[in-house]
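Let us practice reading a record.
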Amino acid sequence: MSPVQAPNAVVMIRPHNFRSNPETREDNAFQTGAEGENVAVQARNEFDSAVEQLRAAGVQVHVFEDESNQTPDSVFPNNWFSTHAGGHVAIYPMFAKNRQSERRIDVVEMLKRDYRVQDVIDFSGLEADGLALEGTGAMVLDHVERVAYTVESNRADPVILERFCTHFGYEPIAFEARDRFGNRVYHTNVLMGIGTHYALVCLDMIVDPNRRTMVQDRLVQSGREVIDLSEAQIEAFAGNAIELTGTTRVLALSKTAIDALQPDQITIIEKTAKLVPLSIPTIETAGGSVRCMLAGVHLTRRKSRIN
């Protein structure tokens, strides 16, 4: 079973001081914000349960602790780094100041130690110029067809996108997307997710009809069945899912998301993947869901290392 699109390992950051990030609230319409002294404990319990479920499904999970009270969004590591077949790692510039502290040397060192890493390309210095490209939040990557689907936003600078695509060998397909209130979608991975044999996407939120048709056509041409999500399903994080390889192929998504899917949509997914719903209602108040919590490891493990 090829793990090209569906990695068999992920990195997750266990939060100790989780809370809704005031610096990202302005452009993240999904962020509702949970209040109360038990929020951090609830988030940590949800995290631990999610790790347990993923491991039970056969997915390798690398857990790192975050005890800082300066990084409220650290539970979403897919925004600051990504990994790629052939031994490549990218590190990204972040839009919000307090998210820039989420980058961790120990995560990169673990990847170098346990996996074959040829190079680490660090774009984070471009933060000094006020530029951001927030990893696989800003880009939804088709690792098979080598396409980087990207919603235009202040979290996805076109210059860095072009540099990333040139270096890593992806074709950029950028488009504007807005919700029913006219707000710009802040991250592509709330709008779409690409599996091996299917793709989740809300085509109606893509503003330009020509770009909408182009995105749909490219997904169909890749041989995938397109599951066209409604905006209500997007608001329930149904697009914020990730396909992984465990004992079988699985689609990790939230309980909120699976409850929003229609039976026919679930049937399409279950042809080739087992659904693994994770209950993370507290974490979702920060404006991200399961996909944001999981940084996929698309690297070859060193055979000499024992788990």
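A brief commentary: The domain at 9-296 is CATH 3.75.10.10 (L-arginine/glycine Amidinotransferase; Chain A).
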